[in-house]
Specification:
alpha+beta, 5 helices, TIGR04255 family protein, CHP04255
Length: about 280
Amino acid sequence: MTANTEPLLRFTNSPLDEFFMGVQFNAIPNFSNGHFGWFWKNYLDHDWTKALDASYLPDAFEHFGQERQWAIPGVSLQAHGGADRLQVISADDERVIQIQNTRFLYNWRKRKLEYPSFVTTYPDFRDKWELFQTFLKDANLGQTTPNQWEICYINSISKGTLWNSPADWSSILPGLLPQDRLAGLVEFENLASEYRYEIPSKRGRIRIAIQHARSVEHDGPEFLKLQLMARGPIVAGMPEWNLDSGLNLGHRVLVETFERISSPEAKSFWGRQEIQ
């Protein structure tokens, strides 16, 4: 239940805005909205001061072989029975625990300059997940049956830092965006793309989404949004396919992916460092 300690990378001037890790599980019979408040007030400490209601997230599974999905899946608010989703927010507004009757997510949101490492955040996620298991047992709701792990990093690369026009994007992320061969013929204007890659041995899949966006705050500055997500199956009775192994694998793959798609100049600007 520990985070992997292999040498990884850290960025002192990271573009990271938010990340989350979590687990999806089979629906719990008899779980209701009332259980949300019970867990929040009786099992979380006083650091978790606020709560918000949110829409239910449809279940998401990574399929392989003949079951593979060809269409890009989108989030849809589907009708369902049972509880919706609760977001419990820490006093510093940086951490969010999200719970619904098939998901448990732990978020970090950028409010200060430095982001916490996976090694320091992972134990807190595990602690809150175990608290949730204890709560379910105490409430006579049984045990969860996890079926998918997921981890996601969301980056914002602001205009005026490494880029001033879309033509500059290939110099930031050459591993995703090769040099524009239409330069001089037409002008590159915008982009919204998703890339999908299978983790070997069908351990999971990574999804890379990139989009030119504008913030609704601070007079609407432009930025390039880069989202890297990894998700994969959990198989009961197989340690190499459990929640801990999956999240550590997903983290390692996403960090290495970010390293490979980014240019040396971008990594230098973001303060790349190797850590133990």
